[in-house]
Write a structure and sequence with these properties.
The chain is α+β, with helices and mostly antiparallel strands and 149 residues long. The chain has one domain. 28% of the residues lie in helices and 21% in strands. The chain is built from 4 helices and 6 strands; from the N terminus they run ααββαβαβββ. It has a 4-stranded antiparallel β-sheet.
Length: 149
């Protein structure tokens, strides 16, 4: 993952649509969970079924996930855009919440059919719940970086 990040370090600019959709409307707080407001339809906000996802952590991680390339005008710059988004997300999270969260940043290389792309999701860190085993992530076949904030 590091080689991809450092290769694109010079242009970590976030696309305006990504900022407008995810960071400016900010977050929806519901039953102890945090969601990107943009990803939760207003009519669904009162009907979130946490048990469908196993628990609150699974629900947050599933609902908050998106493909960065879907919000990029310049598809060649998707990794730089994703990393810029990650930096702004971390700053926003720290300014709004005292609680910790875990961010998952998954790279889909350009050699893959749908690459290059980056998947992004997050959930609050909870002592009794987990979405992925962070200890086993380093052995995963996919290129996924987990960041505890």
């Amino acid at each position: 993952m590091e080689k991809f990040l450092f290769r694109t370090k010079a242009s970590w600019a976030i696309e305006p649509e990504l900022r407008r959709n995810f960071l400016e409307p900010s977050f929806l707080l519901k039953d102890g969970c945090v969601f990107f407001e943009y990803l939760v339809k207003p009519e669904a906000a009162n009907r979130l079924n946490f048990h469908r996802y196993g628990d609150r952590t699974g629900c947050e991680a599933s609902v908050n996930g998106f493909h960065v390339v879907d919000f990029c005008e310049n598809k060649e710059n998707v990794l730089a855009t994703a990393y810029g988004f990650l930096q702004e997300f971390i700053e926003l999270w720290r300014s709004k919440f005292d609680e910790e969260c875990v961010v998952y940043f998954g790279l889909i290389p350009e050699e893959e059919e749908f690459g290059p792309d980056v998947t992004f999701t997050f959930h609050k860190k909870r002592a009794d719940e987990s979405w992925m085993d962070l200890e086993k992530l380093k052995d995963a076949a996919d290129c996924i970086m987990a960041i505890e904030i």
